Amino acid sequence: MQEVMKKTAVVTDSNAGILPEEAAEKQIFVLPMPFMIDGKDYLEHVDLTEEALPSGGDMLLPYTADVMALMTALRREWGVVYPEERG
After folding, report:
1. Own/partner pairs, 67-70, CB within 8 angstroms, 24+ separation
2. pLDDT for position 61
3. pLDDT at 2 (0 to 100)
4. Contact (CB, 8 A) for 22 and 3
């Protein structure tokens, strides 16, 4: 019987401290964390560099649409996606 190797995707948000270069090198999928500053949304590592992140902004959860788009892409490419639930 032939053993089938399964691929595992690691998905996190930018609050994990993984820089885009490291994520690309290690094939980690990183969703950018949104920040609201003065009523305007910004994405970490997209609109703001880590050095430019203010201490007074409100950190939000990754956008649902971004999470769903990534999960759909992973499902299409890899077949099955099992999210880890945290309680």
Report:
1. 67/31, 70/11, 70/29, 70/31
2. 77
3. 62
4. no
- Closest listed residue to residue 73, CA positions, set 31, 32, 44, 42: 31
pLDDT tens-place string over residues 13-59: 888 888 889 999 998 999 988 888 778 888 888 887 766 666 666 66
> Cα–Cα distance between 41 and 55 in angstroms, integer?
15
Q: Give CA–CA dist 71/29, Å, rounded.
A: 10
Per residue in 70-80, is it b (16+ CB within 10 Å) or e — as a string? beeebeeeeee
Structural domain span for residue 75: 54-79
User: Is 15 contained in some domain?
Assistant: no
The tally of domains found in the chain comes to: 1
The pLDDT value recorded for residue 46 is 82
Angstrom distance (rounded) from CA 65 to CA 25:
25
64 in a structural domain: yes
